[in-house]
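Hi Y.,

Following your request, here is the sequence exactly as I used it, all 195 residues.
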Amino acid sequence: PRLDSSIVPITVNATVGDTETHLLDAIRQRLPRIEEGAELDEVLARVRRGEGLPVDKRLLIVIDQFEQWLHGQSVHGETSQLSDALRQCDGKRVTCLVLVRVDFMMGIHRFMRSLEIPIREGQNSAAVDLFDTLHTRDVLAQFGRAYGRLPNDPDATEGQQNAFLDSAVKDLAEDGKVIPVRLAVCAEMFKGREW
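Below is the corresponding structure, written out as tokens. Let me know if you'd prefer a different format.
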């Protein structure tokens, strides 16, 4: 929601075998002027050249849980449909943000090498630390408000609701830190229940 209106975001969760299909389907949903039948790399090449997207817009592809895709690939110098497609990202009309867990950094290094893009900290890569418990509680409360499980006014949160937040954070934390995806899964699991 904080992105400039000139940016058209497309977000997909990576999977072992269907990331490319999910991405292509998501692009076609957001950009209906893209013709059927074109492969992912050709679709992104067309968008980069100015087709299918108004001239004042930019496409931002966000691939979350990229380690899922990496786990199912062999990127030791080989190309794949996804790597061929992401070669079309020029940072102007088409940009891609890939989110990957730190324990898959060797895989991301191999992938970036297959794209012939060096990893440069602060320019095209950044490490994001785990959440501390205070931030975790705040994010969980935001999820609760978004799901209608907590009042919009943080000061109106009641005793049982505060106890739920505290208990959830305590259960999620390991050495005072929380893995963000665990927090998201927790919020998803409890979104239909009373907080």
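The first helix runs from residue 19 to 30.

Thanks again,
Q.
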